[in-house]
Specification:
The protein is 31% helix and 15% strand. It has 21 helices and 28 strands.
Length: 751
Amino acid sequence: MADGFAEFMRTATGHTPYGYQAALAADGLPEYLEAPSGAGKTAAAVLPWLYRRQVAATGVTPRRLVHVLPAHSLAHGTAVRIGEWLRRLGLADEVGLHLVAGAAASGGAWRRRPEQSAILVGTADALLSRALMRGFADWRGMEAVSFALLHTDTQWVFDEMHLLGPARQTGIRLQQLRDELGTVAPTRTMWMCSTRTGGGIGDDEEALQARLGAERRVERLRPDPARYLPELARSLVAAHVPGTRSIAVLNTAERARALYRELRATAPGREVRLLHRGFRAGERPVVTEGPADLILVATPALEAGTDLSARTLLTELAPWASIVQRAGRCNRHGEEPDGGRLLWCPPPGADGGGDRVAEWLTEREGRAVSTGEFFEASVAEPSPPAPPLRRADLLDLFDTSREPDGTGVAGWILGPAEGDALVAWRRWEQGAPGEEEPDPGADELCPVPLADLPELLDGRAWTRDRRDHRWRPADAGDLRPGAVLLLDAGLGGYLQDEGWAPDSRTPVVPCGAIAEPGSAATARQLFACTSWVSLDQHLMETEEEAERLVTALTGVSAAHRAAVARAARYHDLGKCHPAFQEMLRSGGGDPPPGLLAKSKAPHNGIGNSRAHFRHELVSALILLGEEQPDGGGEPDHRLVAYLAAAHHGQLRIAPHRRPEEAAQLLGVRDGDRTPPIELSTGERFRARTLSTAAFRTAGPGSWTEQALALRDREDLGPFRLAYLETLVRVADWRSSARHDGPVPPLLLPPG
């Protein structure tokens, strides 16, 4: 295997693997991996897994790799690097690559192919919130799918574990809960760091001497606090060597922006760039290429996921793990024969570092310190307190109809000052978004710290209401991680070279292809069903897709496979409801007789009398009302009913009750009549009168009691149950896609 992996890695990266990387390809990823900054940890996490999965076919390598970076990081660069490896290896079409961070966190293509090998790269806030079934910037209807796939047949890799804050303890606890509660297929976790704590890269260090021996001379700056930024700028310009790169890492985005402006004024002919999280996707500065003569001002976003090197690096005093990462960007590859310069200074106030870090740096004043010395150093610092994730908390989170105790999950993932909303800028003649204002696209969205937004809650920030989906002024309750806000472009707040600039009043130029309200591009159906599909046909096709899917996957028991297939066959029985049939036929055309599942003609949705109608509630009522045979190898009928009800993610443990629905539940009224149904399998479902009583309470005999019993059953548990839900949903998506195609704009309904 060693020779095969060596050629594999040379093809991907152009480099021969270090011995420790080859050992990972032979033995699999361990629980802990300690290697110095610049020693190829990203390649060590990805390429051995990829080789074992796609080439060696060990049979025990998880299907998905989830590469987690600290919440403040820029994950895009890591995803680009991995994408280039896949391209060189000819695996770009076989292995999915998905970025789950910032504006890209709202994408979800990785959920549609659970049988495919895939790599997810993202930040801890985006990925762990999904692993807790409360994904930041995620659609609530997809939360169970994200949860299922992240906890099944997955290899988690946490990069720079000491920079993760509360996410570190939560990641550890989630692995413990997976081991306790059981998963369909094994899921593992590896933790990586750039300091030695007892493990490491074994006896392979001889091959890494060029990296371990890379030096930088430590020098302390003593700027006058009253003129902190001007003196910092002058020191950096004086230390900069023409033709090389210099980097300044400041602890806050506010000071980074101010230093960037100071440098532009101090050295007007010098190339200066600013790098932090708060840029729109297409306007983030490219710093891995470009001019060699460059001064880069950055925030802690630079600490993980960026493979940069500078001859001169200036850093504010910070926690030890941050200092190690920043120092690792100074003469990173040992390319400077005379070594690099590492300049440091305490920031104004008490917002960075600790006495032990300052003491360690002071003791080495004027000395050349190697990468190996940073790696071996022991500068213990207390870990910030984090709320423990209990088993009961995870079980509560399984119910997506409510928030656990109203607090959300941010405390298990982020520190008190962390968390971003996603902001886009638009222009409105009337001063506010209209009813048909389209949602922003990923290219428009800019991550903005939540702490910067409260002053905008005076009518300048708008959000889409969760209940009626209309735009309304945002309030304090809307400021949560992943929230999407619209701001008036005329009021400023963003500069192309600075990104998020809250003190700027320069009007913002909107970006991206923003559709005009009422145009075809804003319609809900741009790609939809292009033929009439009968209910029986759709049910049979969904069952076929489910059987293909479970055949392609491992770990699903025979009993659970049968339940998934049966739920796929029954999932849309509720579309027989007269209100749904009327909707399908409301768009005109020439619908065929009989019960339909899909409409060829665009339609305007359920009328006001049946607002919020959910056909899957009717499916559950039909299945629960059927007499079930005892034994005989039939699938568990309660599990089948649950999987059918959950196939859109809207009806799981309990329905989303709405105050305005006093006379009905999810558009279904007690006393509604459904017609008889006959399937091509010979099965018959009689006409019936519906009662939603079991869904209106949480006591004995209720739907909620039955669903919780499934969640807590020993052969299921939350991870397996969510995975079975996902298989039914994916089968439904695939059977629907058989009949999808682009809809001509003239056939689209307005808005």
